[in-house]
Amino acid sequence: MKRIILLVSFVLAVVVSNAQRVDLDRFYFKATYRNLPLKPLGFEYKTFDAQATFTAGVGKLFTPEEITGKFVIEGFQPATENPDVTIKFSAEDIQLYRTEVKNRVEEAKDKNGNVTSRKTIYWFEIEYSMSVKYELFDNKKNASVTSARVAGRDDKYIFKSSETSTHAGARDFYFLNKEMVIRNIMDERFTEYIKFINATLTTNYGYRVDTATELLWILGAKKHADFEEYNRIYKVINDAFANMTSDASVEPVAEALKPAIEYLNGIIEKYKADEKNDKKMRYSAYYNLAKIYLYLDMPDEVIKMGNLIITNDYDTRDGKNFIEDANKLKELFAKNNMNTRHFER
User: Fold this and answer.
1) Of 73, 68, 83, 81, which Cα lies nearest the Cα of 39?
2) CA spacing 20 to 30 A to 55: which of 26, 35, 175, 254?
3) How far is the C-alpha of 331 from the C-alpha of 338, rounded, in Å?
4) Mean of the per-residue pLDDT values for the chain?
5) Hey, how many other C-beta atoms are within 10 angstroms of the C-beta on 113?
């Protein structure tokens, strides 16, 4: 009889243990916000224009309008009259160091390694450099904000034409289409440089809108008592953030998230044991709360959750990462004299 009781007790313990086993699955939500500038000029700076000056050779191939229309500072509007800032772009003539036909020989061999055929492949190579710089000028203060050279004579590039089967074909590609080839080379480089300038100016001074895809941890063990409710709460979080925009207050989103925040805090109170499954449950709640608070622009709450993740002693690295992200956000808020990344621009 005792053996039967012990066996039944063991089976029940195994069943309970399996029912409460904690497996965490990854689920994702999207959050939209504005990146705050690293070097803010002031929120009142909202418009820009662009100017381009060329030396004679560049001026024969491009009009200023072809270049200036490609400039963007995200969060700023282009303006033709009284812009707050001006992007000044200048480019010097391309300098050619080497123009030549190059070739290689391709061999076909049989299974014994004997050469059965040879053919020569030709292409045209151009070694060149460009000199390009830009400046951001503050028209309100009549002063330069920043300037930099993005390409200089020490930056040498190699252009390679398409391959052909004849020396004459490679040679004529360049000599019969010289102006077009040079223009295409410069246009490709200008596009690259302007992309870099736009990204730099937007990061430092602009207000780019981003939509981040972010991770949540929810229960994957279907037999767990909290499985259904935890998955329902994930949908609450996902639906709330789906209504987040960059140009509206987060208050309606925060209101919609209240049931999720309450539930996650309940998880923390419910699973207090110092054993792995309870630690994993607390970890998931701390982690998910930290993510929610991060996109509700509440860095102090993120730091609290980060410290609790560390104290909980399950994947403490995430806690350190949250604290680092929150401190960076606080620094940005201080620089911009703001407390949110959600506003009309």
Assistant:
1) 73
2) 175
3) 10
4) 93
5) 6
